[in-house]
Amino acid sequence: MPASPRLSTVQCLSPAGLHRMAYHEWGDPANPRVLVCVHGLSRTGRDFDVLAQALSHDYRVICPDVVGRGRSDWLGNPAYYTIPQYVADMVTLIARLNVDKVDWFGTSMGGLIGISLAGQAGSPIGKLLLNDVGPRMTETSLTRIGAYLGLPVRFKTFDEGLNYLHTISASFGHHTPEQWRELNSAILKPMPGDSGLEWGLHYDPAIAVPFKAVTPEMVQQGEAMLWQLFQAMACETLVVRGAESDLLTRETAAEMVQRGQHVRTVEIPDVGHAPTFVQPEQVAIAKAFFTE
């Protein structure tokens, strides 16, 4: 069982007002080498417990709960559950950490936040690992995610909730029952129900509002902007793709190598969207990239 990280919060600002973003910290707080690990759309910073422990001797590892998720506040206006707001929050977090440079591990949405920050002039990102994400996403993956995101699901028992999460997370690849429990325990939270204590998901269901409002034209415009930012990135970048991914195609990963400045790829067999970096061979990929 992984040890517990230190929990802190930082105050951030959106047009809807102030909010607090929680982050989980591993390693020596005085270590000037910082790795920021940012999770996917409906996950939390606790996804990185195994990876963070493995890298905590080399880095001070920071794993935020993006606003609206986990221990972080929910926004008063769901229209701001968007990448620009998340980038602004991460800039505030990095300022709190009092470092000039960070390395970045981003899974899915966390990778899009990383691209959006790394493509800015004067970006603080030194190395960037993009976990199964790129500037172009498939319609299939967006439809799959939209089918479950924001549903008002409730579970009578904790184990019932774990079984549900196992079902919607099947593309993560094979994990032992213990690994599934450790991955998904932070995704569930107790809440009062009609017949007593029930279990629900950790995130604000309203994070689905801007996601489901996206039109094909907005997808096209967003992709063009992401490619522009991606091509501007000067940092060393590793794109990790799950071989069975429905979000990051093999063709897009190859295009990222062609259009990027310092980009290479690696593919993980028997995994879809997205590798969890719980398995030792996956952890080794990240450790080799960040410590080489």
Describe the structure in your own words.
The chain is α/β, with parallel strands linked by helices and 292 residues long. 36% of the residues lie in helices and 24% in strands. The strands form two sheets. It has an eight-stranded mixed sheet with strand order 1-2-4-3-5-6-10-11, sandwiched between helices. A three-stranded antiparallel sheet has the order 7-9-8. The mean pLDDT is 95.
SSE topology:
Elements: E1 6-14, E2 17-26, E3 34-38, H1 49-55, E4 60-64, H2 83-97, E5 102-107, H3 109-118, E6 125-131, H4 139-148, E7 154-155, H5 158-168, H6 177-184, E8 188-193, E9 196-201, H7 208-212, H8 216-232, E10 236-242, H9 250-259, E11 263-268, H10 280-291
Parallel strand pairs: 3-4, 3-5, 5-6, 6-10, 10-11
Antiparallel strand pairs: 1-2, 2-4, 7-9, 8-9
Helix pairs in contact: 2-3, 3-8
Task: State the main characteristics.
alpha/beta; 292 residues; globular; 8-stranded mixed beta sheet; 36% helix
Output the structural class.
alpha/beta
Q: Count every beta strand, where a strand is a DSSP E run of 2 or more residues.
A: 11
Strand order of the largest sheet: 1-2-4-3-5-6-10-11
The shape, in one word, is globular
Beta-strand portion reads 15-25%
- Radius of gyration (CA) equals 18 Å
End-to-end Cα distance = 28 Å
Task: Count the DSSP helices.
Answer: 10
Give me the strand/helix succession. Answer: EEEHEHEHEHEHHEEHHEHEH
List low-pLDDT spans. none
Largest sheet: 8 strands, mixed
The average pLDDT is 95
Helical content (DSSP H or I, runs of 4+): 25-40%
